[in-house]
Known about the structure:
The structure holds 2 protein chains of 2 kinds.
Chain A: H1 2-10, H2 14-22, H3 33-37, H4 63-86, H5 94-102, H6 109-143, H7 155-169, H8 175-199, H9 206-231, H10 234-242, H11 250-278, H12 281-286, H13 291-313, H14 319-331, H15 335-360, H16 368-386
Helix pairs in contact in A: 1-2, 4-6, 4-15, 5-6, 6-11, 6-13, 6-14, 6-15, 7-8, 7-9, 7-10, 7-13, 8-9, 8-13, 9-10, 11-13, 11-15, 14-15
Chain B: H1 6-37, H2 45-52, H3 58-93, H4 105-119, H5 131-150, E1 151-152, E2 156-157, H6 159-181, H7 186-197, H8 205-224, H9 226-232, H10 236-241, H11 246-268, H12 274-286, H13 290-315, H14 323-341
Antiparallel strand pairs in B: 1-2
Helix pairs in contact in B: 1-13, 3-8, 3-11, 3-12, 3-13, 4-5, 4-6, 4-7, 4-11, 5-6, 5-11, 8-11, 12-13, 13-14
Amino acid sequence: MSTRSNKTRNGSKPAEADTAAMNATMQTSSVSEAQQSSHSYHPAFSGTATTTPSSHAPIKSRPIAATVVLFGGLIALVLGLFLSINFGAADISFKVVWQAIFQFNPELTDHQIIRELRLPRVFGGAMVGASFAVAGAIMQGMTRNPLADSGLLGINSGAGFMLAICFAFFPGLPFMSVILFSFVGAALGAGLVYGIGALAKGGLSPARLVLAGAALSALLSALAEGIALYFKIGQDIAFWYAGGVAGTRWDQLQVMFPWVAVALVMGIVLSRSVTMLSLGEDIARGLGQRTGLVKALCAIVVLILAGSAVAVVGAVGFVGLIIPHLTRKLVGVDYRWIIPCSAILGALLVIFADIAARMVNPPEETPIGALIALIGVPFFLYLARKERREL
Amino acid sequence: MQAITAESIEKKRRSRSILVMSILAVLIFTTFIISMNTGVIKLTPKDLIMTLFGQGTDRQELVLFQFRLPRIVISMLIGAGLALSGCIMQGITRNALADPGLLGINAGAGLVVMLYVSYFPTTANVPVFFLPMLAFVGAALTAFLIYVLAYKKHEGIMPTRLILTGVAVAAGISAAMIVLTLRLNPEKYQMVATWLAGSIWGTNWKFVMALLPWLLFLIPYVMTKAQTMNVLNLSDATARGLGAHVSREQLKLLAAGVALAASCVAVSGGIGFVGLIGPHLAKRLVGPKHQGLLPASALVGALLVLTADTIGRWAIQPSEIPTGIVTAVIGAPYFLYLMTRTRG
């Protein structure tokens, strides 16, 4: 308690006090302001752990909290699924919803709505949320960049750009090929951003990498918009840029599901190695890890997850930023817990954002990308302020 | 043998500036002529001259005087305004990557303009003269917000954090805009969407008249501050030692820069990267002294937007590419290139 009151006196934000409370066991009760301003969000991920004043803070994992999050999250997810299916422009009673799922009668319009519109939508939302969140978690762990997110680092806009090309030059491709285009685009975006980082003198700090990502996104979306205008496919593309799960179809999910499932399993398998990488590449190598191989595998997982998610809902950003940070606060620093918990929380976020998107302005739908950005931007600003290593 | 004195260098630089600016002026004039010829309705050079001297058909006069000329004039004005604004911001933040678009100031101006245009019923007769004022309010509020968010005790404002905050605030504002604009009816929505993409939408003389007084006041004001800006470009301590009232001058210049960007954005929409490229190219051409840099930036900016607008009209006839897209396609790679060259 003394830590907290001290901080309040110093006029800091309560969230910072929370972080510190997390490490309060190891910190003295008289945290000075100078110490606090240099306090990174977690020593294990700050990249300069050896030099921070709080470097002796414990690297803790909380299996109990993680189990609670995992099961609580699953229950909330099931609730969210039902809520989302129940909720929509057409007023359908819960009983009918139940029947539509378990005693499907193709004659009834209501049953059709549930089966063909709402169910794919909600499953799509869940898969996409899990994908973005796990992609973000792996990127943050692997690159030790707290600002890593597939939206911020140009991966989503790369995928969107390739989708524009795909719609313009090869209209009517099956979704299987579309998703492959999306992977290529994701790889393009990631390759360009990290290429620029590699070209820069002395490498790029996380903050500057985000700037490079922003500029690259501006370029790629301008090009995509140009293509869309030229080929008069603006409507299709606009949907991809705004982001929404409304148009999700079963056939898309069928194609997407195996990719996402395999990638998620791979992510969980790799989680132990990601934890090691998150301690620093030297440490990981010292512990006997083949870092090159692990990093390549992680990159593939990230590209598959982000690419397939973008192919279904469009360039939705910030899920991969918010969720892993939140999860880390809840379950500690072990990626064996962070990755599965992130998947569940990410799915929750997108499902509830989608419900909100339908509630804001019925019967119109608000793009979930915009809604999540409204939460994501303040969160990002908060993180960027705490990011000390920049500059 | 002539001794190399400070004076002779100064003289050389001045003659070089004059040469560069004359070349730029010639280029702008050439583009101006080409731009007048570009469009769906063809005007041969002969028609053009005839029309300019009042000998054209009604149709030709309509196309030239009511559509193309105001648009061309506006392109040049906003190009000059945005580039000057970028030059000021790069100068006072000593940050090579500063640009009113990247810093989110354009987005703030846009949000207020959009709210006004969409929620007040008078679409047919928007009080155009009022728009730059509104835009200025929005831009100033955003600038203030970004400054507060990027400010940190003991460290002050770090260049990268400033831009990062700007980028994020701009993203937030655009998200808010998307949510807000969905409530609009389709016609207004279309208008907003075009505006966001940065097409020069105010293409009649009313908009020129709304923009002009701001520029006529602000551009000369900024030019008179050239010497101050040279001093401010050094470190704060040096500038103070040379007798400049640093924070007051910075604030004045910042206000001028924000006002320039805001009034331009009010008529042009989201055109980015001009404020970044203009001053950089100008610096390469005439050197870092603001006496030459400011006018050269304005000219480069004018040339840039005019060219972008002409390309946008020419590339995919009969439809048009919004100018903002063209400037982004040119500007974003340049920004990335700069990032690899500058250190944080």
